[in-house]
Amino acid sequence: RKIGCIGAGESTVADMLGDMMARDRNPLVNCTVNCGIITLHIISRSKDKQQAEILAERDVEKLCGILGDLVFGFDGDSLAEVVGKKLLRDKKTLALAESCTGGLIAKQITDIPGSSGYFKCGWITYGNEAKISQLGVKEELIEEYGAVSGEVASAMAAGAREKSGADFAAAVTGIAGPGGGSEQKPVGLVYISIASEKGVETEKFLFGPRDRDFIRQRTCQNALNLLRLKLGI
To answer: What does the DSSP assignment read for 103-122?
Structure first.
C-alpha cells in the first residue's frame, strides 16, 4: 500500500513514525520524496496473500492515526485528484488567480478528467496591471506592499472568487527566480491565499533559494494542499 503525505519534512515524518520504520520490521515502511510529497510504501510479507493484505491494512490505519491531516491520499492519488473529488462530491466550484506559477495550478487541476464539473476559470495575472484590471486589486495596495505580499495575494483570491462566482478561489504570488529577489523578499518567497464564504486566509512560504521549476512546483503543491485542508479532507 501507499500513503501520500504533505506538510512536513521527511525527517519530521520519520521522527513521528519511530520504530515503525525499523528495517527488520514486517510490514516494512519505506518513504520516497518528490517535490514536497512524501509517499510511504507499506510492504508486508506472508505466505498467505490475505494475511499480507491484513497486515498492510493495519499499518495504514496506524500510520493515518499518527500522521493525521498530513495524509492526503492513498495508492497513487494526486493532490489535484483528491481536491477535485471533494469539490465534486460537495457540489462546490473553484477559480484560480496565478502569478508566479503561470497557469501551472490550472494545468494540474484540468489534467484530471471531469474537472469541468468543478473548475470554473482561472486568471494568469503576471503583471501588476492585470492584477488591477482583471481581479480588482487596488493599485495603492501594490504600491504600498508590493505585488509579492500577503495583502496582494488576499486581494487576488477575493477578486477571483467575486468575479467568477466560485465557492472557492486560490491565488498565488511570489518570486520564482532566478532573479528579482532582494534581502527583504528573496527568491522562493511565495504567498498563497484561499478565499471562501468564510473569508480569505493567506500563508507565507519560503521555498528558496532553489531553481525556478522547483519553486513553481512547490507553490502548486502547497496551494492544492491548502485547498484540501480548507475542504476538510
So the answer is: THHHHHHHTSTTGGGTEEEE
